[in-house]
Amino acid sequence: MTWHAWQVPSTRNIATDPKRAVVVEARSIDFVPLSERYGTPRRLFTIWFSANMTILGVALGSLGIAAGLSLVWAVLAIVIGNAIGTVFMAAHSAQGPQLGIPQMIQSRAQFGVRGAGLPLAIVVITYLLYCAANGVLIQGTIMALVPIGNNSALVLYAVATLIVAFIGYELIHRLGAVLTVISATLFVIATGLLISGHSEQFSSIPIAPVHFSRSALILTMTQTAAWSLSYGPYVADYSRYLPPNVPTSTTFWYTAFGCWLSSSLIMAFGAYLATIEPELVKDPGNAIANLFGPARPIVQLMIIVGVVQGNVMNLYSAYMSVVTIVTGLRKVDTVGKRQKLLVMTLLMIVATSVSTVAQKNFDAYFADMLNAMIYMLVPWSAINLADYYVIHKGRYNIPAMFQIDGEYGAYRWKTIAVYVMGIIIQQPFVSLSFYKGPIAHLLGADIAWIPGLVVPGILHIVVERSGVRSSVRNARVSTASTSRVD
């Protein structure tokens, strides 16, 4: 049966909120049948709130202070940057209930079944880098709790991530709900303890914005926007089991509010921590745990579990992307549990290996990673959203996304060309530790994400609509010629 996203069926057979057992997820990249749809949009708030409340967010929040901003300007940049990134990631999330497939499978409709492998490869690299970054930050906390060495801590962290990611969707959501309560409580208490312990420093922080740096402000906005934008390629993976009659606006706002609120809070906390005690940001897990005195081991364990949860989402969706690439080449639409375990294991081995290298120069590695990531992901996001909301208006032939000779074909070269152009056009605006484009040098700031977002989206709409007009015109000519022959 051909299922089109705009056809919302009767919900009698949809399990809206069953008592689901936590078992290994049976589905991978395949379409979730209507009889298996369940849950409510409230789950989207908890999973995205918990995903951001980690020490990686603390580290990111400190970057604005390190770049030279005052606390007030850093927090302003964090709030605005997260708002920008969240709008786009939440727009991707809204696709999940309507389509019932992972986010990057839907990219086959724009890039072709095999052509989608190009942005998918970049997505895999991005999430493996995030896994590595999490490992670097959390290993100190693990070692403080368990008497083991650096590499052993990374392996332990990798194994915990692998187990939860392998079980999959339901366990990830349940952990998100529990961790939302735990992380919010920890955040409130830690903030209170930190302020009370540094009351003189807190009272001396100026209310009026000072130490303004345009380049540092834009850089911080770019990095925080990249944080939320990086969820775009997998955000629908966690909404695809919801019933298709869930309103798009409801999906959008639960996702957006959960993501924006938590990311802004945790990054503002990181900025404050960097303002009063810059050295603490080098090991934020232990810095926060030390605030709790005798309860320190319990807090360390909670912090570790929180980081594992966020890392699980990276691994889970990196796996989805790898499987999407492989199945596009091998003409299959699902994989078994053994293959799932094998792929996830290999991905964690790669991420752990990167962690052992990156730990020696984490600050430069993390900043460059965020910038490079947004250069690659923003053009994809622009194309995907323009296609979904403007070109097709949510109307897709889901079975055709698994057929190389189907409606979407193996490669859609026009879209691939637009995507590559979207990356190239950003180069004059790029600013990395080892390279700075001419316009970025002139402005003293990185604004590559602006042309990377605007240009590909507009080009994709123009190219697709021109193709439709050409098809209609050719059909009319063909009809007219046939009429004359008759």
In terms of DSSP E residues, the strand content is: under 5%
The rounded Rg comes to 23 Å
Helix content: 55-70%
- Find the count of extended strands (DSSP E, 2+ residues): 0
Q: Describe the biggest sheet?
A: none
Global structural class: mainly alpha
Unreliable segments of 5+ consecutive residues: 1-18, 470-486
Q: What is the string of helix and strand elements?
A: HHHHHHHHHHHHHHHHHHH
Quickly count the helices. Answer: 19
Q: Cα distance, first to last residue?
A: 37 Å
3D shape: globular
Q: Which whole number gives the mean pLDDT? A: 83
Explain the overall architecture.
This protein is mainly α and about 475 residues long. It has 19 helices and no strands. It has helices at about 40-50, 55-65, 70-95, 95-100, 105, 110, 115-145, 150-165, 170-195, 200-205, 215-230, 250-275, 285-290, 295-330, 335-360, 360-390, 415-425, 440-445, 450-485.
